[in-house]
Amino acid sequence: MKLLFLGTGGAVPRIDRRMPAVYLEDWEGHRILLDAGEGAQYSLLENGISPASLDFVAVTHEHEDHILGLPGLLSTAKMMGKEITVLAPRRLSSYLSKSGVRVASEIADRRLKISCIEMCHTTETCGWLLEWDVGFKLDLSKVTGFPKQALTKLIKGEPVEVNGRLILPEEVADPGHRRFRRLLYTGDTAPCPRAWSSVGWVDVLIHEATFADDVEPARAHEEGHSTVNDAVEAARALNASILILTHISARYDDLEKHRRAASYNFVVIPEDGDWVFVRF
């Protein structure tokens, strides 16, 4: 999976840190934009990605730093013959729909499901949970002699009949293999234990880290935002293999304070234009 961080800033732009936008391309060929901050289409074009190549844009909430790039991007794609589906929270979806935008509350497409997880911000906010069904990895010692067609169905999660007996995928699966792969993009949020409980676990967590460790957590939370430590605690709660921090306040000239505060097994703090490659 390829992630391109087009904009890693917060509400106030910097010359080196644009408004929130993350491009995601998976192994199934899906192209998704997570949030569409101001200038998102220009950032895509600078990286050789056509706005019309996007399948979906998933917007977390209605605050301007997350949506001002959406109208221009959708207009460009439409002129190029592509109508992009936008995922958004309910109130924003209603407004976009009345404006003629094709909207959806969730997506289930080619082994990928995208669904809204309600976050803890100052307005209605969807964290977007992306879940891929990668099928079952079979324990070869349990499927010796099975027809190839039966193996294919079992890998896809379908039961099969072999020698008059119904075989369920779970019976012959490698017990150490996970059928699903998960990524959660929080958008803006204060600490949100109810969201972590509803999700359970993820492989990759892209969490906002508006503030480092130089701001009182209570102040950050009142504003509906998180510190680096809050993001680390979320990653621990979700047992994330990879934690990626973004949405950095313009008060920081560099990422040193964030790096010092990010005490987790595997943390990435990208800058604008950075690619992150994830192998599941």
Task: Give a short synopsis of this structure.
With 280 residues, the chain is α/β, with parallel strands linked by helices.
CATH class: Alpha Beta
According to CATH, the homologous superfamily is Ribonuclease Z/Hydroxyacylglutathione hydrolase-like
Q: What integer is the average pLDDT? A: 96
Largest sheet properties: 7 strands, mixed
Q: Which fold name is given in CATH as the topology?
A: Metallo-beta-lactamase, Chain A
Helix content: 25-40%
> In angstroms, what is the radius of gyration?
20 Å
What is the tally of helical segments?
10
**Total tally of structural domains:** 1
- The order of strands across the largest sheet is 6-5-4-3-2-1-16
Describe the protein.
Zn(2+) 1 binds at residues 61, 63, 121, 188. It catalyses: Endonucleolytic cleavage of RNA, removing extra 3' nucleotides from tRNA precursor, generating 3' termini of tRNAs. A 3'-hydroxy group is left at the tRNA terminus and a 5'-phosphoryl group is left at the trailer molecule. Pfam families: Lactamase_B_2 (PF12706). Zn(2+) 2 binds at residues 65-66, 188, 247. The chain is α/β, with parallel strands linked by helices. The protein has a single domain (2-134, 179-277), classed as 4-Layer Sandwich (Metallo-beta-lactamase, Chain A). It contains ten helices and 16 strands. The strands form three sheets. The protein has a seven-stranded mixed sheet with strand order 6-5-4-3-2-1-16. It is globular and about 65 Å long.
Topology:
Blueprint (H helix, E strand, L loop, with lengths): L1 E6 L13 E5 L5 E4 L5 H7 L9 E3 L5 H4 L2 H10 L5 E3 L2 H9 L4 E2 L2 E3 L2 E7 L7 E8 L14 H8 L4 E3 L2 E3 L1 H4 L7 E6 L7 H7 L4 E5 L8 H6 L5 H10 L4 E5 L9 H6 L5 E2 L5 E4 L3
Parallel strand pairs: 3-4, 4-5, 5-6, 12-13, 13-14, 14-15
Antiparallel strand pairs: 1-2, 1-16, 2-3, 7-8, 8-9, 9-12, 10-11
Keywords: Endonuclease, Hydrolase, Metal-binding, Nuclease, tRNA processing, Zinc
Protein name: Ribonuclease Z
Organism: Thermoproteus tenax (strain ATCC 35583 / DSM 2078 / JCM 9277 / NBRC 100435 / Kra 1)
